[in-house]
Design brief:
The chain is of the alpha/beta class and 336 residues long. It is built from 13 helices and eight strands.
Length: 336
């Protein structure tokens, strides 16, 4: 059976997303389109490129989270550097490792530009005929953008010539923490600054829904990551950096983490309470793993991946597509 997937952002917690997607494919569902934000964009890109089942887990195991923390510029200055990097807005981390990693992994799967992810589906508008959708926030234009859908209409660019990895990296640019990315419009005098799509829509569950009023031909499953009550993410980042880089972490990072978490998750948490959203959403419990737990051990990575796999398996075992359509779409299942 075919299915669409919507993957929430969540930083390091995205390991759980990979486990959930692996379970969906192992259950026999074939992803048609995948919409992802931040970590969801990274996992979604790999799945859209063709990775299935255990292969997803094997690819994610190659991601070195400690290397993700690639400080640069002011962030390299002892003691005061991290604070200066945060205040300057240049980003504490360069994000170069992330871009190189996703570029290489996609290339290994035969994906380079959006042309490689084209989807032959005449029922969709031409600009939406792709297996992947990546959500970003354009700070210059002050709006949510979806790649590759908006390349031509917003930027005047041919989507098929744009690298998929660039859009994924842009969607993972958490403000202040990762260096923002830029995109030059067809008019070379205009350049946009792009950051994490989660600022405007971290869980775009309705992004792949039909807008023509017709009945959906297959389900859309959302995957979100929940976290148990715990000390602030900033506290754990402080511990990691104190051990790894021998500099104290400012209390301001804890405040920044709370601010970003509220901005990224606030709207979506309210949306998740709606019955028709809950009915098609897989919830993965991340435990004590946080957004920026770059020092996560392999054992905890494996455990989070397995929690994602188990959560999706349990959800799918109870999911009834006909019952969902009858209750939330007003359709009576056909006999036979």
């Amino acid at each position: 059976m075919r299915a669409d997937l919507v993957l929430e952002g969540g930083g390091v917690k995205g390991i759980g997303l990979a486990g959930a997607v692996a379970a969906v494919t192992d259950a026999g569902y074939v992803p048609q389109r995948i919409s992802g934000t931040s970590a969801g964009a990274l996992v979604g890109a790999i799945a859209a490129a063709g990775a299935r089942g255990t292969e997803l887990g094997e690819i994610l195991r190659r991601l070195d989270f400690r290397a993700v923390a690639d400080r640069h510029g002011l962030g390299l200055v002892p003691l005061i550097g991290p604070g200066l990097a945060l205040l300057s807005g240049s980003g504490l981390y360069r994000g170069g490792y992330l871009l190189d990693w996703i570029t290489d992994e996609l290339a290994a799967l035969g994906v380079h530009t959006w042309r490689d992810l084209r989807l032959d589906d005449p029922s969709l508008p031409p600009e939406q005929r792709y297996r992947l959708v990546v959500t970003c926030s354009d700070l210059t234009l002050g709006q949510l953008v979806r790649f590759p859908w908006d390349y031509r209409s917003v930027y005047g660019l041919d989507p098929d010539s744009q690298p998929v990895a660039d859009a994924v990296r842009a969607s993972m640019a958490i403000p202040f923490l990762f260096e923002p990315t830029t995109l030059t419009h067809a008019d070379p005098a205009v350049t946009s600054t792009l950051v994490d799509g989660g600022l405007l829509s971290n869980f775009p569950i309705d992004s792949l829904d039909r807008t023509d009023g017709a009945a959906p031909a297959w389900p859309t499953f959302g995957v979100t990551i929940t976290t148990a009550p715990k000390p602030g993410i900033g506290d754990r980042v402080a511990l990691f950096h104190t051990r790894m880089f021998d500099w104290p972490q400012p209390t301001a990072l804890r405040l920044l983490e709370q601010l970003l978490t509220t901005m990224i998750l606030g709207r979506d948490q309210a949306y998740l309470n709606r019955p028709w959203v809950q009915a098609r959403t897989i919830h993965v419990e991340a435990g004590e793993v946080g957004l920026l737990d770059f020092g996560i051990t392999q054992a905890r990575r494996d455990a989070l991946y397995q929690r994602g796999y188990d959560a999706a398996s349990g959800f799918l075992a109870a999911f009834d597509w006909d019952a969902y359509r009858e209750r939330f779409r007003g359709e009576v299942p056909a006999a036979g």
